[in-house]
What does this fold into?
Amino acid sequence: KHSVGEDAILRKAIEKGDIPSMILWGPPGVGKTTLANIIADTLSVPFYNLSAINSGVKDVREVIERASKTANAVLFVDEIHRFSKNQQDSLLGAVEQGIVRLIGATTENPSFEVISPLLSRCQVYILKSMNDEELSTLLNRAITVDEKLKERNVKVEQTAALFKFSGGDARKLLNILDIIAGATD
It folds into this structure.
């Protein structure tokens, strides 16, 4: 809610269809990748996805070349803090020229892990761990929308324990739910 709630600035930018290049910074499981996908879907623009773990400068250049032939492309780089200085440098021209709108996701402080020239071309949005209300919404959606869980008619009686074990991490919450649902009648 703090990032894309009703009056949040990022939400307004998405609704206007005019997002800046950005770095999404937050702990695991808060929706950085999901938010990037929502932005791309909402904008209906070409969406390129790279993981810094297994992509190099060559991959970045290929995406930029493809993106230069389209308009308003979004390049999502997961774990951008793992990109070397040279890999981050390879993004600068395309971001500055508007060939791509960069969305970088990181669990590390971008002030220390993203090079200054790239950081100065991006807005940094801090995503917080989910609170109990947000986890409850996610949990209710999962048990009412997910076909397997809906079919099993899952009822959760001890949400406090689930929320405690998840630690504000949506992915962890859903994994715990899957494990429990698979291990019980």
Summary: The CA atoms of residues 99 and 126 lie 25 Å apart. The chain has a mean pLDDT of 92.
